[in-house]
């Protein structure tokens, strides 16, 4: 074989490659694609699983002054029913006379069933002592509803009031920078640096926004529930600390949760 | 006692199994300072060992550069469904944890 046909063959091959790539026209990868790829790589070994395992053990362990487990805790679907409870929270509870989210409900159960003072747990710093247990329990309860669709009850007046309250809190501008939740999460296509922001005034999609928490945060190696997520949103807005399990945080949860109706929960998910 | 590991072992083609391990550990480097300016002492896993039916198939020495809550994945030859995989680690405080999983 001579040299020329070989070069010609090589050129033909090159031309074929060029044609193929022109056909596919590789669109520049967006930052969201990059982050999604990164999450997919991490998802197989999501350390949130460690919190789920810890939470499941805690749920079934006798603890507190009353030496009882949480297995009789009513999360809204009857005592001891965990599966599917997460995607219907926050909701109204007759025994406490309040609309409660998962974290505040766990505080109530801890107090009534185990005798662990709810006020003390609420006042503890995130990630420390009893708060660390709450994080694990939150991960466990959420994991039992993974893949299910959000469907918060709005049948009671209290629940509808909380939705309205949450809506007002969401659009309420305050603080030194005149921020509201809606400043960042009120319309689609916004981002902070490379982080795309979900539009929380409607259903942003499966596993986005409200449907993505609790989540393991790789950057800090912590598991964050919705309470901690909201507390950090308040901090970023230069608002005062809202209080763990406070009505305003629950109201925002109702607002986002009702808006996310039909979105599948991926919690506990993984975040950078 | 340290928190448990999560171990998944799946038998695949060519008589090989894929093992995925998540370990719960702080993995403190010894380089960081706390709010008071004091150095947070190093606390990390130093030795990892994997056994297939009691026979060691992997041993590793780890240092402070391994991330918090480490994830370890490896393939092991000759492992079939029903075999036992056991993972142990020892950290620099002498604490240790061993967990076992069955290959599926």
Spell out the blueprint of helices and strands:
The complex is a heterodimer of chains A (272) and B (104).
Chain A: H1 3-24, H2 31-43, H3 48-59, E1 91-93, E2 98-100, H4 102-114, H5 118-123, H6 129-143, H7 157-171, H8 181-185, E3 190-192, E4 195-197, E5 215-217, E6 222-224, H9 226-236, H10 247-259, E7 269-271
Parallel strand pairs in A: 5-7
Antiparallel strand pairs in A: 1-2, 3-4, 5-6
Helix pairs in contact in A: 3-6, 4-6, 7-10
Chain B: E1 6-11, E2 16-22, E3 45-52, E4 55-61, E5 71-77, E6 84-91, E7 96-102
Antiparallel strand pairs in B: 1-2, 2-5, 3-4, 3-6, 6-7
Helix content of chain B: under 10%
**Adjacency order of strands in the biggest sheet of chain A:** 6-5-7
CA gyration radius of chain B, whole angstroms = 16 Å
Low-pLDDT parts of chain B are: none
Taken as a percent bin, the fraction of beta residues of chain B is over 45%
Rg of chain A is: 23 Å
Q: Which strand-content bin applies to the residues of chain A? A: 5-15%
Q: CATH first level of chain A: which class? A: Mainly Alpha
Beta strands of chain A, count = 7
Average pLDDT rating of chain A = 87
The helix/strand series of chain B, from N terminus to C terminus, equals EEEEEEE
Derived structural class of chain A: mainly alpha
CATH homologous superfamily label of chain A? Cytochrome c-like domain
Any idea what the shape of chain A is? globular
Distance between the termini of chain A: 56 Å
The total count of strands of chain B amounts to: 7
CATH level-4 homologous superfamily of chain B: Immunoglobulins
Q: Structural class, judged by helices and strands of chain B?
A: mainly beta
Choose one word for the global shape of chain B: elongated
Oligomer: heterodimer
CATH architecture title of chain A: Orthogonal Bundle
Descriptive overview:
The complex is a heterodimer of chains A (272) and B (104). Chain A is mainly alpha-helical and 272 residues long. Chain A has a single domain (31-271), classed as Cytochrome Bc1 Complex, Chain D, domain 2 (Orthogonal Bundle), CATH 1.10.760. Helix content of chain A is 46%, strand content 8%. Chain A has ten helices and seven strands. Chain A has a three-stranded mixed sheet. In chain A, strands 1-2 form a two-stranded antiparallel ribbon. In chain A, strands 3-4 form a two-stranded antiparallel ribbon. The N and C termini of chain A lie far apart (56 Å). Residues 16-22 of chain A have low confidence and may be disordered. Chain B has 104 residues and is an all-beta fold. Chain B has a single domain (6-31, 40-102), classed as Immunoglobulins (Immunoglobulin-like, Sandwich), CATH 2.60.40.10. Chain B contains no helices and seven strands. Chain B has strands at residues 6-11, 16-22, 45-52, 55-61, 71-77, 84-91, 96-102. In chain B, the strands form two sheets. In chain B, strands 4-3-6-7 form a four-stranded antiparallel sheet, with no helix packed on it. A three-stranded antiparallel sheet of chain B has the order 1-2-5, with no helix packed on it. The radius of gyration of chain B is 16 Å and the shape is elongated. The two termini of chain B are 28 Å apart. Classes of the chains: A mainly alpha (272), B mainly beta (104). The interface between A and B is small, with 8 and 11 residues.
């Amino acid at each position: 074989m001579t040299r020329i046909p070989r070069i010609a063959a090589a050129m033909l091959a090159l031309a074929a490659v060029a044609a193929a790539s022109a056909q596919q026209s590789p669109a520049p990868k967006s930052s969201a694609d990059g982050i999604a790829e990164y999450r997919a790589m991490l998802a197989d070994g999501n350390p949130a699983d460690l919190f789920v395992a810890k939470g499941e053990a805690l749920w079934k362990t006798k603890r507190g002054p009353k030496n009882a487990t949480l297995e009789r805790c009513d999360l809204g679907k009857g005592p001891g029913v965990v599966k599917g409870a997460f995607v219907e929270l926050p909701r109204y509870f007759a025994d406490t006379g309040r609309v409660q989210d998962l974290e505040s409900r766990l505080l109530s159960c801890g107090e009534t069933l185990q005798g662990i003072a709810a006020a003390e747990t609420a006042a503890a710093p995130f990630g420390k002592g009893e708060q660390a247990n709450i994080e694990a329990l939150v991960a466990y309860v959420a994991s039992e509803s993974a893949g299910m669709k959000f469907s918060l009850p709005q049948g009671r007046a209290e629940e509808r009031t909380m939705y309205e309250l949450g809506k007002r809190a969401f659009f309420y501008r305050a603080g030194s920078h005149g921020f509201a939740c809606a400043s960042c999460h009120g319309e689609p296509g916004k981002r902070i640096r490379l982080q795309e922001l979900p539009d929380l005034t409607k259903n942003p999609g499966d596993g986005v926004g409200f449907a993505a928490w609790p989540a393991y945060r790789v950057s800090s190696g912590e598991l964050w529930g919705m309470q901690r997520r909201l507390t950090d949103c308040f901090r970023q807005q230069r608002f005062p600390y809202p209080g763990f399990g406070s009505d305003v945080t629950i109201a925002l949860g109702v607002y986002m949760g009702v808006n996310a109706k039909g979105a599948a929960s991926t919690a506990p998910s993984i975040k950078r | 006692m340290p928190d448990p590991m999560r171990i998944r072992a799946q038998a695949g083609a060519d008589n090989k199994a894929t093992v995925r391990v998540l370990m719960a550990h702080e993995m403190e480097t010894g380089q960081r300072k706390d709010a008071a300016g004091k150095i947070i002492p190093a606390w990390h896993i130093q030795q990892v060992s994997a056994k297939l039916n009691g026979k060691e198939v992997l041993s590793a020495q780890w240092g402070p550069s391994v991330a918090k809550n480490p994830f370890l994945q490896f393939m092991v030859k000759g492992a079939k469904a029903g075999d036992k995989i056991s993972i142990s680690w020892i950290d620099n405080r002498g604490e240790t944890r061993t967990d076992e999983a069955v290959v599926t």
